[in-house]
Amino acid sequence: MKWKKWRLELLGVLLGLIWIAPFYLMFVNSFKTQRELFEGTLNLPSSLDFSNYIEAFQEMNFLQTLFNSVLVTGFSIVIIIFFSAMAAYALARTKSKVSTVILFIFISAMLIPFQSVMIPLVSLFGEIDLLNRGGLIFMYLGFGSSLSIFLYHGAMNNIPETLDEAARIDGANKFQIFWYIIFPMLKPITVTVGILNTIWIWNDYLLPSLVINSPGSETIPLRMFYFFGQYTTQWHLAMAGLTLAILPVIIGYFFAQRAIIKGVTDGAVK
């Protein structure tokens, strides 16, 4: 038993090293000059020079870009959670063939690759002047709703309808039943939906590159592309920029880790 436990611990350490290796390379190389980086990628920097960070911060217009990413991601997550939960509640509580067909349409939408609809989508939104941050948020609602509704619908089926009936007897309308009784019970799945969509939207490059055209409205993935030119790549600045890009996510996780872990564990227990 001790030998098996020791092997599992060793495997865990090896997997941890593999997982942390890209972060090590990114952080260490962010302090190097272009020449030092190519001389030895795995080597430690000769000095802790923060000039790469200062230059990357300025070139990325980091504060404005960070604001754009937080704005787009935050609003997208809020409306995806709100509308997906309401749609799933309506579909779960309406027992009919129509609701079943609508649910299957949402589920089947997950199988459609974005590349097959991106050209007509961008053309349509361009005609109605929605190639901006508002249009981008609206697109994220459309593309993120399918999986979110599917997850919420599965969780709704585990909540007894007697709660709805009891609240209805007390005089609550449908929205009050959903908002004050059903939605608070969906906290574990809400955390899951929020995490999945945050990772996707925060790191997305393709959709913002098609929609965001005005200077000053770019998200972090778009501004990161500045360091990757057609003929040269400023790897030392790119490493510093990547480090700056993941810092908000890490800081946000540390502040929200208690709620995230509690939501995930509550869902596992249920």
TrEMBL record:
Signal peptide: none annotated. It is a multi-pass membrane protein. It is found in: Cell membrane. Its main location: membrane. PROSITE patterns: ABC_TM1. One of its GO terms (biological process) is transmembrane transport. The keyword Membrane applies. Residues 66-256 form the ABC transmembrane type-1 domain. Gene3D superfamilies: MetI-like (1.10.3720.10). The chain crosses the membrane at residues 7-27, 66-89, 101-125, 137-156, 177-202, 235-256. GO terms for cellular component: plasma membrane. Keywords: Cell membrane, Membrane, Transmembrane, Transmembrane helix, Transport. Belongs to the binding-protein-dependent transport system permease family. This is Sugar ABC transporter permease. It comes from Alkalibacillus haloalkaliphilus.
